[in-house]
Amino acid sequence: VTRSRQDNGYARLLRRQVEEVFRNNRMIAVCQYNSMPGEDMVLMRHYLRKHNIEVKFVLNEIVRPVVSQSKFKNLLPLFVARNILLVSPETKAKEMLRVLKGVPQVNLLGACIDNAILSRQGVENFAKLPPLEAAQGQTVGALALLPSQTSSLLQRGSALLTALLDQH
């Protein structure tokens, strides 16, 4: 009886840790993991950690119940083989894809970025987007241009009328 109670306690602890990972990170990428030499894994973890991305090894029997009871349930079909999670409190999709390009043993299946569930293609498209600050700057610039264009259009008619009257 104590052995199964210990197993249940350990499983509960692992599930709580998975819940924490999903709660505390803006980017959670689900990857298929195929065996690779230990030094390659150490290198991949090092390059990802430089961008504040952590590698989490998860067991499907632990992660599936957690995901099925959460807003991330659409990620459930991705947890079938050996999986790892790449997680970050920031949305570092571009940096993650750059590192994964050099690691054929790890295949990105999908991700949840800022509560939006994306396919691999969706993550690649997201990575191509300009940073939020740049997009906001472009929007502000475009909005500032509109009133000055409107003003010059309104003044053009009176300027043209004045020029015609001067010629007359």
UniProtKB/TrEMBL annotation:
The UniProt record lists the keyword Ribonucleoprotein: yes
Q: Where are the transmembrane segments?
A: none
Q: Mind listing the UniProt keywords for this protein, alphabetically?
A: Ribonucleoprotein, Ribosomal protein
- Please give one Pfam family short name: Ribosomal_L10
- Tree of life domain: Eukaryota
UniProt key word NADP? no
InterPro entries, per database record = Ribosomal_uL10, Ribosomal_uL10-like_sf, Ribosomal_uL10_bac_type
Which is a Gene Ontology cellular component entry for this protein?
ribosome
Q: Which family does it belong to?
A: Belongs to the universal ribosomal protein uL10 family.
Stated name of the protein:
Large ribosomal subunit protein uL10m
